[in-house]
Every structure is written in structure tokens, then in C-alpha cells.
Design a protein that fits this description.
The structure holds 2 protein chains of 2 kinds.
Chain A (H helix, E strand, L loop, with lengths): L8 E4 L23 E12 L6 E7 L5 E7 L3 H6 L12 E8 L6 E10 L2 E2 L6
Parallel strand pairs in A: 4-6
Antiparallel strand pairs in A: 1-2, 2-3, 2-5, 3-4, 5-6, 6-7
Chain B lengths: L2 H15 L37 E4 L7 E2 L2 E2 L27 H9 L28 H4 L4 E6 L3 E6 L4 E6 L16 E8 L2 E7 L19 E10 L2 E9 L8 E11 L13 H12 L9
Parallel strand pairs in B: 6-7
Antiparallel strand pairs in B: 1-4, 1-11, 2-3, 4-5, 5-6, 7-8, 8-9, 9-10, 10-11
Classes of the chains: A mainly beta, B alpha+beta.
């Protein structure tokens, strides 16, 4: 069964380079095959708190139905080291992010990269 | 470009490599430690001061599954991130569990490593914002700590989960039958001018040893050796002894590097908030459970 949102495109079935998994919690609930989906839509909320930073995104499918995705990264301290701030995203921003999606087909995912905010690629720092 | 200007630029760039990231505003607050890669070619920082461990120390460590010497992941790979195993068969550096230790391990349901369960289903005390306690506060995400020192004690503040430790150096001995404490009872002594050894007992077994659910009993004894290699560097080795859970002592950290930050470095807050955790699970964690009917 595919994901409920057809607008979410499968961008990579098997990545040549593995992506790091969250250290705060693991990925038991998520597709660890390397497959990723692109979540593209409008930010409705940006939650800059522990245990993990969340971004809520309204994603519209081909028929106009809207689903609110929730995507996560690490905690604010780790994200700050990567160049994120409390204002990196704001409601109304048009964004695109690649995520590892939940196995249960809920509209949630762990952000892996390829972050685009209002048409501009967002480059993380650190390493 | 004149030679002296070029030298000044090179010097400034080199100095910046070990400086926290500066911001245009509020640069005195919420400083960011340099990335781990900065330390790969780190040069010796000059002679170490005698019998001195005070300072702001950063590790560049942002955690993992298990502890630095015994990650709970399969050798070489992503498979360890999938989880679902009952025990730790196949991990790269297995631990010497007793029968009771293995039973206790299986009762702990971590959210990381080969035994991980869905985040919302873990019984990790950290997930409900219990105190991490010691040594969990170091084995999981020992990032940046603030260490002060007086003639009678060394105080370590670890902003991750608001952890702190009091290490007495006034010559007292460890208590023989203490009330158990999350952070235990610690005494320290200098075995030479550059080596500080800390013994800790009386640790509350409600805490885990690490983020992979490694258990400990009331008989846990932790020995830390802080070896100051030079002015800017300390090597931390942590030995775990718990005959109830493990057949022999083992190292959770082995010459784990701590790097000295500037004296005005302001560490970011990093608490665990029960209300924030609830909101996170409402928004995300509970939705990730693979089979909500179970």
C-alpha cells in the first residue's frame, strides 16, 4: 500500500549513502530501507522545543485534499549547531523536505535533508 | 597584501577554528560548540595546569545507541537501527551479562538500537523526564559540561536534563549503606598532578546505564579517570563494575575526549519537560506507533 498522499513523491528507493538516524530515539516506527518521500506544502506550525523540533506542513494532493504532515528533526541544541534557529520556519512558508516516513502510513516523518524554504535551498552547517 | 596582514588573517582563522560559533546578536549567550570535525586535527594546547579540571568542556558527542564503547547496533550498519531483537545478539562489542543482567536487560525497552521499540512504547525513564542520574547523564549525550573546583569539591553541571554532580575531594570516604540517589555519592582524588580519579556508588537502579537499556543494580560502582593531556584536552575513561548484572568490569568510555571551551562560553539549556514530551507524543510519537491497536 502506498502513502495516502499521492502528492508525496518517492524520490529515492535506495540511497547510496546512508543517512544518520536520530540518536534521541530510534527509527523502529519508520521505513529504514533508505526510501524517502518529499513533503511539499505550507508550514502551519514550527515547534522549537525538546524533545524534538517539529514542523507541521499542509500538503495538498492532486484533488485538492489537504493533509497536515508532522516532520521532525533533533532537539533545538543539535539543530542550532546545524544552523537552525527559532525563526528558520514560520507559518505560511512554502517548503519542501525529504523525510523517512512512518511504516504505518501516517503523515509523519523524520527529516533527512533537501530542505527548500520559499524556493531557496537551506544549507545546514556543522558536521 | 602585506605579509603581516596575511599572517594576521591566518592567525584569526586558526583561532576561530576552536571558538564557538559567533552570532551577530547576543553572541555572549547560547554559544555553539564547534563541530566534531574541528577536533580531528587539533594541535596540543600547551602544558596542562597541575591538579586542575575546572572549565567548560565540550565533547562534540551528540549521543548514540548505548554508550561510546558499547553501541547497541549491529556491526557496520543500518540494520541496528531497525530494532525488534529481544537481546543484543550480533552487536559489535557485546557486554558480559549475568543471567540476572540479561533478564533485566530484556525488561528494559529502549527506543534505540537493536532492541528498540516505538518511541511512544519505551519504558526508558528518560522518556518521562525522570532524572537521567549518573552515569546515564554521561553515557548518552555528554555534550558540554561546566566544571568548577574548590579545595573540597568538584561540581559538574550537565545542562542535558539539568544534571549535576558533587564530587567531594575533602578526603571523606564513600558511605557504606547510603540512601540511594540518582546521582549517587562521589569522591575524587588526584593520583598524580594530571590524573583525577572519581569513585561513585549508591546509585538508584531505577535509572539505566545508558540509552540502550543496559541495567544496573544497587551494587553498581563507577570509576572515572580524568587524565588532563594538555591545557585544552582531557581524556575520560569510565569503568563499570556491577557483579549483579555483569560478570566482569567493562569500560563505557575509553579515553573519551573533552575539549576546553573559552571561559565565557554559555551552554544552551537542554531540559526534559514532561509537558513538552506530552505535546510531542500527541503530535508525533503516538502517531508513529506501528500498530495502535496493540
Amino acid at each position: 500500500m502506498g502513502h495516502p498522499l499521492r502528492v508525496v513523491a518517492l524520490v529515492s528507493s535506495l540511497l547510496a549513502v546512508s543517512v544518520p538516524l536520530l540518536a534521541h530515539h530510534g527509527a523502529a516506527s519508520f521505513d529504514t530501507s533508505g526510501a524517502m518521500v518529499t513533503v511539499k506544502g505550507t508550514v502551519t506550525e514550527y515547534i522549537w522545543t525538546n524533545p524534538h523540533v517539529l514542523i507541521k506542513v499542509d500538503v495538498k494532493d492532486a484533488t485538492g485534499n489537504v493533509t497536515n504532515w508532522v516532520v521532525e528533526v533533533w532537539n533545538p541544541v543539535t539543530q542550532a549547531n546545524r544552523g537552525w534557529t527559532k525563526t528558520t520556519f514560520k507559518p505560511g512558508d512554502e517548503i519542501s523536505v525529504d523525510v523517512t516516513a512512518a511504516k504505518n502510513n501516517r503523515p509523519i516523518g523524520m527529516i533527512r535533508g533537501n530542505i527548500v524554504i520559499n524556493g531557496k535551498p537551506f544549507k545546514e552547517i556543522g558536521g | 597584501m602585506s605579509k603581516c596582514v596575511a599572517v594576521a588573517i591566518v592567525t584569526a582563522v586558526a583561532a576561530g577554528m576552536l571558538s564557538p560559533v559567533a552570532h551577530a546578536q547576543d553572541e555572549k549567550w547560547n554559544n555553539l560548540a564547534p563541530p566534531l570535525s574541528t577536533y580531528k586535527n587539533k594541535k596540543p594546547g600547551g602544558p596542562a595546569p597541575r591538579r586542575e579540571i575546572a572549565g567548560i568542556w565540550d565533547t562534540g558527542w551528540i549521543g548514540g545507541s548505548g554508550n561510546p564503547e558499547h553501541p547497541a547496533t549491529l556491526a557496520g550498519g543500518r540494520a541496528g537501527a531497525v530494532g525488534g531483537q529481544e537481546d543484543e545478539t550480533g552487536i559489535a562489542n557485546p557486554l558480559p551479562y549475568t543471567a540476572k543482567g540479561l533478564e533485566a536487560l530484556k525488561a528494559n525497552k529502549p527506543s534505540n538500537g537493536v532492541r528498540q521499540v516505538d518511541f511512544a512504547l519505551t519504558n526508558d525513564p528518560a522518556t518521562i523526564c525522570d532524572p537521567l542520574g549518573f552515569p546515564y547523564m554521561f553515557t548518552w549525550e555528554m555534550r558540554t559540561i561546566n566544571v568548577t573546583q574548590s579545595p573540597t569539591q568538584v561540581v559538574m553541571i550537565n545542562p542535558f536534563y539539568g544534571g549535576y554532580r558533587i564530587i567531594w575531594t575533602d578526603g571523606r570516604t564513600l558511605p557504606k549503606d547510603p540512601d540511594l540517589r540518582w546521582n549517587g555519592y562521589s569522591v575524587g582524588r588526584w593520583t598524580d598532578d594530571y590524573t583525577f580519579v572519581v569513585e561513585t556508588t549508591g546509585l538508584n537502579p531505577r535509572s539505566w546505564l545508558d540509552h540502550a537499556g543496559r541495567p544496573h543494580s544497587e551494587q553498581l560502582r563507577v570509576e572515572e579517570t580524568y587524565h588532563r593531556v594538555d591545557r585544552d584536552t582531557v581524556e575520560l575513561t569510565m569503568k563499570i563494575t556491577d557483579p549483579v548484572m555483569y560478570t566482569e568490569p567493562w569500560l563505557a568510555m575509553n579515553k573519551f575526549l573533552l575539549h576546553l571551551m573559552p571561559p565565557d562560553f554559555d551552554i544552551r539549556e537542554n531540559f526534559c519537560s514532561p509537558t513538552e514530551n506530552k505535546s510531542y507524543n500527541d503530535d508525533y510519537g503516538n502517531a508513529a506507533i506501528q500498530n495502535p491497536s496493540k
